[in-house]
Design brief:
By secondary structure, the protein is of the alpha+beta class. It is built from 30 helices and 21 strands. The protein has 6 domains: about 160 residues, Orthogonal Bundle (Hypothetical protein af1432), CATH 1.10.3210; about 140 residues, 2-Layer Sandwich (Beta Polymerase, domain 2), CATH 3.30.460.10; about 80 residues, Ubiquitin-like (UB roll), CATH 3.10.20.30; about 80 residues, no CATH class; about 70 residues, no CATH class; about 80 residues, 2-Layer Sandwich (Alpha-Beta Plaits). The structure holds manganese (II) ion.
Length: about 725
């Protein structure tokens, strides 16, 4: 690479312009003088006239061989931001293309990078591409950064550190991505000088100290390499350049090595005409020097992501230290040094349809674009394309970059930050100004979301306006949940009311195990789901309660069996004891009318309490076994009606005789139903109130003593 002569004054830049751009020098001189005039009132921190800076930036870009549009924009890159010059004026004087480039640089200047983790740094780099729209904007910005770093010393230590850090995290990787290793190296070295001044100085000293010694060795190796080329009859160039300090520093830190342990301080390069020459030279080198195992890398067969191509090998020299040698073609070398800028740098040497244009297609690949690049015009068009089209890059108030699809609005942004921020968002500020929530966001916008704890949540209309599916999903979830909450409340009320109506309490029926059975039967996953389902009418309360009551009664029955006598709970309501039961409704069966003393059994009816039957009642046979429950008579005085049938010979005055027996026994008759049978017998059905079974026994004996009475018996309805 040619040694670069930096310009330091007006005469030098003018003569450089005239030398490199003989046909367009008028326009470039105009741009220079225009900028000088516009910035005339400004001084740099060093006290120099401000024009020194744009001049330095343009100088770097002239060395890169950039087109006149870029050089013009370089001279003018700060006028929109720092002077009274308007866009209209720029367009009038230099055309829209120059103005667009200047606007692009001005926009990038407004990005305030806050040092973050790697992912954020990558988002910033992407944003640079997205905002730049034209790769030349980035090239100007990189040159701008180099010049600022070269002249950083008047700034405060704090400013210097921030700029250096930003350079290492954003600008150097950006240059590397664009294949601009030449620019990348300078950015890294200048930054290292700021961030690690002592290490930088030590490296400079060490490198200089050993320079003579090393140079002697390097010269011998170069001589040897030239001989190899001659032997093979291959035309080529051999060069040895000191590696940049930052790469030495990185090697020392990443490999934990002292400076003395870093041998390859010089990049030795063999540049030849063809790819096959590269491999031929490599083979020959390996016959002269022993290659260090594991250090050979074939970036020709497998180029680096930025399309860097070269063969790398490290060999043991007869001087006792290893050396790295890089072998590549001239074309590869241009790309390696200048990357995307090689297009401009070497365009004069192109013969017709140069394969450089095709090669530079990597830029497209790197930037996720499709297809091959044909002409120079197409290349220029491609570098102007919005590289991240379809996306907008938005800043949070903290300076993080959030990437959203184009057309997104503050609602999308809010939901991207956090679901709660989205749900509670009431208004938004873009670049400090309150805007409607549906305002589309543009790359570079600073967005601040204003939330309120009083917010009732998102509006249904938002679903129409949001762009991101994530925001849509979160809004839908909110409504589903909110609806559910209302349904849960409603469902709970309905169930509680029905529970009360049926005479139960939640404590009695809502046992987890029972609920689980019911929920799994109804395919519900939680009690809230169950309430919600009742609330919106998916299920009715009977589907839940009937089964629960069933469970409850069975449990009570089981408990009864397990109860011991001394734990009896007496229910004297109807003179019947049901063990383990409280407050149960007990009724006597109408079919067999049990009376105290009868052997009895209870039947757990559905919702009508326990019905007590005589054990001899034929109806019991048809009843569900598990609903039968053991009951017994209490000692308490109670009266029961027993149905009694008396069959007698028809005889006048019979009824009087019979009722007399009842009266003697002090038993009252509830009802009498008498008829004459076909056989001429009197059939009387009476219901008699008795206290215990023995009352009936006595009654029956007395009745049977009457002559007219043929038969006395208990009957079942
Ligand atoms: Mn600048």
């Amino acid at each position: 690479m040619d040694e670069v002569q930096k310009v330091s004054n007006e005469e030098e830049i003018i003569s450089k312009i005239r030398h490199y751009y003989p046909t367009d020098s008028k326009m470039l001189e105009h741009a220079f003088l225009f900028a000088k005039n516009a910035h005339s009132a400004q001084k740099r921190d060093s006290g120099e006239p401000y024009i020194v800076h744009p001049m330095g930036v343009a100088d770097i870009l002239i060395d890169l061989g950039m087109d006149i549009t870029t050089i013009c924009a370089a001279f003018l890159h700060d006028v929109l931001e720092d002077t009274q010059v308007s866009e209209e004026k720029l367009i009038k004087e230099f055309g829209t293309e120059v103005c667009e480039l200047v606007k692009g640089v001005t926009k990038l200047d407004k990005i305030i990078f806050k040092s973050k983790e790697e992912e954020q740094a990558e988002n910033f780099r992407k944003m640079f591409f997205a905002m730049a729209k034209d790769v030349r904007v980035i090239l100007i910005k990189l040159a701008d950064r180099i010049h600022n770093l070269r002249t950083i010393s008047p700034l405060s230590a704090e400013r210097q550190q921030a700029i250096a850090k930003e350079t290492l995290e954003i600008y150097a990787p950006l240059a590397s991505r664009l294949g601009l290793s030449y620019i990348k190296c300078e950015l890294e070295d200048l930054s290292l000088k700021v961030t690690h001044r002592e290490i930088y100085d030590a490296l400079v000293d060490e490198v200089n100290l050993k320079r003579a010694e090393r140079q002697e060795m390097v010269n011998k190796i170069i001589k040897q390499l030239v001989e190899i080329l001659n032997e093979l009859n291959i035309a080529g160039e051999v060069s040895g350049r000191p590696k940049h300090f930052y790469s030495i520093y990185r090697k020392m830190t990443s490999q934990h090595k002292a400076f003395e342990q870093i041998y390859d301080l010089t990049a030795l390069r063999v540049i030849v005409g063809t790819v096959s020459d590269c491999y031929e030279v490599l083979g020959k080198i390996h016959t002269y020097w022993k290659p260090v195992p594991g250090r050979f890398k074939d970036y020709i067969a497998v180029p680096k992501p930025n399309n860097y191509q070269s063969l790398h090998t490290t060999v043991m020299t007869n001087y006792g230290s290893p050396f790295e040698i890089q072998i590549r073609t001239f074309e590869m070398h241009k790309i390696a040094e200048y990357g995307v800028a090689a297009h401009w740098k070497y365009k004069e040497s192109r013969s017709g349809q140069s394969d450089l244009d095709v090669r530079i297609g990597w830029l497209r690949e790197v930037m996720d674009m499709q297809g091959e690049l044909g002409s120079s015009r197409e290349f220029l068009e491609s570098v102007k394309v919005d590289l991240y089209s379809g996306q907008v890059f938005i800043f949070t108030p903290k300076g993080d970059v959030i990437i959203l699809p184009e057309g997104s609005n503050p609602i999308d942004f809010a939901y991207n930050v956090h679901t709660d921020v989205g749900n509670k968002c009431v208004s938004a500020k873009i670049n400090g100004r309150i805007v409607p929530l549906t305002t589309p966001l543009k790359t570079g916008d600073y967005v601040e979301i204003i939330t309120s704890s009083n917010s009732k949540g998102p509006s249904r209309d938002w679903l129409k306006y949001v762009k991101t599916s994530a925001a849509k999903a979160k809004i839908r979830t909110f409504f589903k949940k909110q609806m559910k909450e209302e349904n849960i409340k409603l469902g709970k009320d309905i169930l509680d009311n029905d529970l009360k109506r049926r005479g139960y309490t939640a404590a009695q029926l809502f046992k987890p195990a029972w609920l689980e059975t019911i929920m799994s039967r109804l395919s519900l996953t939680s009690i809230e789901d169950m309430y919600a389902a009742i609330g919106y009418g998916g299920i009715n309360t009977s589907q839940v309660l009937v089964k629960l009551i069933d469970f409850y009664k069975k449990e009570q029955y089981t408990a009864t069996k397990e109860f011991k006598t001394d734990e009896r709970v007496h229910d004297v309501n109807n003179g019947v004891i049901v063990r383990g039961q409280k407050d149960l409704l007990i009724r006597m069966a109408k079919c067999c009318t049990p009376v105290p003393g009868d052997k009895i059994i209870g039947f757990i009816s559905r919702g009508r309490g326990i019905v007590v039957h005589r054990t001899s009642c034929p109806n019991i046979k048809s009843m569900e076994k598990e609903r039968l429950i053991e009951v017994e008579w209490a000692n308490a005085e109670s009266k029961f009606f027993a149905n009694v049938q008396i069959i007698a010979s028809d005889h006048s005055g019979l009824l009087a005789k019979i009722t007399n027996v009842f009266a003697e026994q002090k038993l009252s008759i509830g009802s009498v139903n008498a008829k004459i049978s076909k056989a001429g017998k009197a059939v009387m059905n009476l219901s008699v109130k008795v206290e215990k079974i023995t009352d009936l026994d006595t009654l029956f004996q007395k009745l049977r003593q009457l002559d007219e009475v043929d038969e006395v018996r208990r009957i079942t309805n």
